Amino acid sequence: MVTKDIICITCPQGCIIKVTGDPAKGEIASCEGFKCKRGKVYAENEFIRPLRILTSSVKTSGAAVPLVAVRTSAPIPKEMQMEAMEEVKKITVSGKLVPGDVIVKNFMGTGADLVASGRLD
After folding, report:
1. What are phi and psi of 25, to 5 degrees?
2. Which of 19, 80, 106, 114 has its CA 20 to 30 A from that of 74?
3. Half-sphere exposure of residue 88, counting CA atoms within 13 Å on the CB side?
4. What are phi and psi of 32, to 5 degrees?
5. Between the CA of residue 120 and those of 23, 90, 101, what are the distances in Å?
6. pLDDT tens per residue across span 15-74
7. How far is residue 62's CA from residue 49's CA, in Å, rounded to a whole number?
8. Are 2 and 23 in contact (CB under 8 A)?
C-alpha cells in the first residue's frame, strides 16, 4: 500500500487529500481530506494516472519569428511528458497558423492533438 498527499487544484480551497492504495493496480483503499466531489475525483485520478496538458513551442521555417507556441488539445499521461518534448523538438512548421490549428493529429497515440496556441503570419 502507498499513501500519497495530493494538493487539489480544482478550486481555490487547495485541499490536501490523502490517498492510500496501489496505483500500479489502479486500486484505491481510502481517500480523505477533500471538501468537494471534484476534489475526490481529481485526487483519485492523480493517484492512479496523473495527466497534464503539454505546452511548448515548435520551430518555424520561413517566418518572421523562430518559434510558435503549441499545446496538446487534452491532457496526456504525465510519464510521457519528457518523451513528448523530444518529439516536439523534431517538429518544424511553416505557413499561416492560428490558435487551434492542428499541427499533429493524435500526438504520440495519446488521442490528443498537438495544436497551435500562438499565431504565425
Report:
1. -95, -5
2. 19
3. 21
4. -135, 150
5. 42, 18, 11
6. 999 999 999 999 999 999 999 999 999 999 999 999 999 999 999 999 999 999 999 999
7. 40
8. yes
Written as nine digits, the cell of 70 is 503549441
Nearest by Cα to 33 from 49, 48, 51, 20: 20
φ, ψ for residue 85 (rounded to 5)? Answer: -65, -35
Q: What amino acid occupies position 19? A: V
Angle (CA) 30 33 39, round 5°? 90
Sheet holding 16-22, edge to edge: 2-7, 16-22, 27-32
| 15-25 as b/e: b if 16+ CB within 10 A | bebebebeeee
